[in-house]
Amino acid sequence: MAATAYSAALLGGARLPAVPRSGLLPRRSSVCPLRVQAAPRLSLLRVKAASEDTSASGDELIEELKAKWDAIEDKPTVLLYGGGAIVALWLTSVVVGAINSVPLLPKILELVGLGYTGWFVYRYLLFKESRKELATDIESLKKKITGTE
Question: Which residue ranges run through the membrane (predicted)?
Fold first, then answer.
């Protein structure tokens, strides 16, 4: 009743025609189309657990890793490189988090990346001659890395 008086006051005294409540929503059917009990059961699919022992493959993996570790002659260098990689990963995460916290910088960097991608596509991928040039550049880089040049 209060809502009707409020709407009448908003409309300058004009009253809206009364609409029966049953006309606003569609009727509910007594039958639900997605009944769980009526779903067919798939009895054709049967899953069996594997009978092989997975701990044997785990033991083999540990033995293989021990053999590889024992074959390394310069263990401190490997530990130094591994520790350096972990520190570099952590530092990269910190830098990216700091850049991401600056309000406009991530969006600007997205625009720079989008612009560079567009330039790269135009320069190297759009025309047949430039694709051949890119392929020869990649092949020469591969030869430099592998040392066959």
Answer: 78-102, 108-126
